[in-house]
Amino acid sequence: MTATATKTDTKTNVRTDGVKTTGASKADTSKRNVDALSAPVYTMDGKTADTISLPEDIFGAPWKNDLVQQVIVAIQANARTPIAHTKMRGEVRGGGKKPWKQKGTGRARHGSIRSPIWRGGGVTHGPRAERSFAQKINRKMRFAALTAVLSRKLKRGEIIFVDALSFKEPKTQKAKEVVQAIAKASGVSELSTRRVNAALIALSKKDFAVEKSFSNFGNLHTEEVRNLNPVIILSYRYLIIENPAEMIKALSARSVSAKKRSAV
């Protein structure tokens, strides 16, 4: 995810993280039956298992465009690893001997063949790998941006809750059937037809069989709930949350931690 975050309105076709998207059809969102603080929970077979009540402080937060943009830029900057590195004249091998004497040759005076004006010499004002792009983000800011993104996705009908995802062994075909069943049950046909950045699957805990089963799909990505952030959520159209009760518990713990840190 290297796209630069930009401030955008909800009606534009460019999302906050720079990923171009198309608006979801009214037919897809109307079938979801999702309101502000509750949503249906589906099974792997595409059946409705239950309805979950969602906390307002996580899924009912107001949209804060400036805050989300600031947090996204900071997260991407913190993930940036400087690679480009040039050598100055003192770091280039050779050039320890004066090329010719100072006077009497008729030529311009030089002290080293590794001067920046020489071919093969050092580089003046070039990029250096020791540069740091890190930006500080308060926990309270990061959590507020996360809740704003989750709330907007829920409001748009782009979050799907699944009670559990489990496979005895990694099976791509089984994972495909699960996605198709969930897409049909939730009324989101684009979930199984979208070729790029279709969905992010948030797992309550690390599961090798589940991750391996979905790894062959280029339009799907699995991630643990504890690693969710605004950048990765906004990079995909839909968010599939497995075991929503555990997810809410984990996010509530992060909320308490952020409030304690801000109170100190």
Description of the structure:
The chain has 264 residues and is an alpha/beta fold. The protein has 2 domains: 26-80 and 134-263, Ribosomal Protein L4, Chain: A (3-Layer(aba) Sandwich); 86-132, no CATH class. It is 34% helix and 11% strand. The chain contains 9 helices and 6 strands. The protein has helices spanning 26-30, 56-59, 65-78, 139-155, 172-186, 190-193, 208-214, 230-234, 244-263; strands at residues 38-42, 48-53, 159-162, 199-203, 220-224, 238-242. It has a 6-stranded mixed beta sheet with strand order 2-1-3-6-4-5, sandwiched between helices. Helix 5 (172-186) packs across helix 7. The model is unreliable at 1-31 (pLDDT under 50).
Give a quick rundown of the structure.
Helices cover 34% and strands 11% of the residues. The protein is of the alpha/beta class. The radius of gyration is 26 Å and the shape is elongated.
Q: Can you say what the CATH homologous superfamily of the largest domain is?
A: Ribosomal protein L4/L1
H/E series: HEEHHHEHHEHEHEH
Q: What is the name of the CATH topology of the largest domain?
A: Ribosomal Protein L4, Chain: A
How many structural domains in the coordinates?
A: 2
Shape: elongated
Between the first and last Cα atoms, what is the distance in angstroms? 34 Å
- The level-1 CATH class of the largest domain: Alpha Beta
> Spans of 5+ residues with little confidence (pLDDT < 50)?
1-31
Structural class: alpha/beta
Q: How many DSSP-defined strands?
A: 6
Strand order of the largest sheet: 2-1-3-6-4-5
Average pLDDT taken over every residue = 86
Would you identify the CATH architecture of the largest domain?
A: 3-Layer(aba) Sandwich
Share of β-strand residues: 5-15%
- The radius of gyration is 26 Å
Largest sheet: 6 strands, mixed
Give the fraction of residues assigned to helices. Answer: 25-40%
